[in-house]
Write a structure and sequence with these properties.
By secondary structure, the protein is an alpha/beta fold. The chain has 12 helices and 11 strands. Helix 1 crosses helix 10, helix 7 runs parallel beside helix 9 and helix 11 crosses helix 12.
């Protein structure tokens, strides 16, 4: 394999726009310390060794454009690097099957292509493009609730010998059947549901574990999230949230010695507030009891840019997937899943996951 990591993107939305613009920001500002990643180099790979060779989307205004053009198209909001200063690329965005990838609330915003191709035709075309571009790793930035499309792309990875990084809460890495399929093909798999650098879930689970480790009794807790991008608009459709709620809730429950009853914990998106744009607000509360049965509670308000919060984590996931490819390691990369994802095949505490991942990076 060559020095560059050849990456294909599924979903050219805000998340990827923030990722690629962030890389370009550091390219144009070499004196800036690169923050938001585990290490400047993982194996031999820095953030500048990612080569985005192809994209797939359903938006009529993105398909057919080059990646550097498509990332600025509506409804994307990230504009950290002016469009005229983003280097041009020959890598293009191609059509993906829609299946269940477009929710009712976002259809007018996304304006999906009215395709004259069948899913079978698209499958043949996609496999050909992946082979021609030399794609090694596919990264899924599909919308929450895209169960069928996620499975479609997982199968594409198996059929084209690509590693898979699944950033959404549709369970592939944490599904035993899919895990075995990737193991059998000796292809790395990292998922499911990206855990932000300092996001709502990582803060909630860390504080819940702190209270538990310090010997208090947690009685109830909630986490409410609001935002103004298409991710939050999509999540207004409650039917698309089943796996998301499982992912976020289990991420917190896994840190407690004794699970809370289902009616004593609420973790999930709450609403779409248009003027917030890419800003995400999290409101968290923990209630419990201390010595002599004396009650306590804490409340946290977190405000983050939703896209800056995930980009560095995904860059680490891509580099770790390539490291696994180079070492001939297939199936779910357990330590990477546990540290980077909300719903991994095996939950760990974050310090333990970090230690295990450092050992993996070093080749132990």
């Amino acid at each position: 394999m060559g020095k560059k990591i050849k990456v294909g993107l599924i979903g050219i939305g805000n998340c990827f726009s923030g990722l690629i613009q962030g890389i370009e920001y550091y390219t144009q500002n070499p004196s800036q310390e690169v923050i938001g990643i585990m290490h400047n180099k993982i194996g031999d790979f820095s953030i500048h060794d990612l080569d985005f060779v192809v994209g797939f989307d359903v938006g009529d205004n993105k398909i057919g454009k080059t990646i550097n053009e498509a990332i600025y198209e509506s409804p994307n909001m990230v504009n950290w690097v002016p469009k005229n200063k983003m280097p041009k690329t020959s890598a293009k965005v191609y059509e993906s099957p829609i299946l269940d990838g477009v929710g009712i609330w976002v259809e007018n915003k996304i304006n999906p292509i009215k395709s004259n191709k069948t899913d079978a035709q698209l499958t043949v075309e996609i496999k050909k493009i992946i082979k021609e571009t030399g794609t090694e790793i596919l990264v899924s930035y599909l919308p929450v609730g895209s169960e069928k499309v996620t499975q479609f792309w997982a199968q594409i990875c198996l059929d084209t010998n690509c590693a898979f990084v699944n950033c959404i809460p549709s369970f592939i890495a944490s599904n035993d059947e899919w895990g075995k399929k990737f193991t059998a093909k000796n292809l790395p798999l990292i998922g499911d549901d990206i855990k932000g650098q300092v996001g709502a879930t990582i803060v909630h689970r860390t504080l819940a574990r702190l209270c538990d480790d310090r010997g208090t009794k947690i009685e109830r807790t909630y986490q409410i999230n609001v935002g103004g991008n298409t991710d939050f608009l999509n999540m207004k459709e409650q039917e698309r949230l089943v796996s998301k709620r499982i992912s976020k809730t289990e991420s917190v429950q896994s840190q407690l010695r004794k699970r809370l009853d289902d009616d004593q914990i609420y973790v999930g998106p709450s609403d779409f507030i248009p003027f917030l744009g890419n800003t995400k607000l999290m409101f968290m509360r923990i209630e419990g009891r201390q010595w002599a049965n004396i009650p306590y509670n804490m409340e946290v308000r977190l405000e983050v840019d939703d896209k800056a919060n995930s980009a560095g984590i995904v860059i680490d996931a891509i580099r770790l997937a390539r490291l696994a490819l180079d070492r001939g390691i297939g199936g779910p990369v357990i330590s990477a899943c546990a540290y980077l994802m909300k719903h991994p095949p095996k939950q760990m505490s974050d310090p333990d996951a970090r230690n295990e991942l450092e050992r993996f990076i070093k080749g132990n």
